[in-house]
């Protein structure tokens, strides 16, 4: 992953707290990424199903637990990382 990557942040913790499914919001954000951009997702749990979905769509990820109910996942396009 390039150090000069542009980061697009999306925090879905409030959506999930309100019992709103953020899947479409996440996928719309992924589709809108330009070359050289990565998505930094904030979630209240480790989003294992999403990791699998985006892996199949050509995205690698970096996962970090910040606090007990705060995970950060950076998704970036595969094939040499960000372009």
TrEMBL record:
Tell me where on the tree of life, at the top rank, the source sits: Bacteria
Q: Which InterPro entries match?
A: DUF2249
The segment(s) forming the DUF2249 domain are 9-77
Q: Spell out the protein name for this chain.
A: Uncharacterized conserved protein
Q: Per the UniProt entry, what species is this protein from, by scientific name?
A: Thalassobacillus cyri
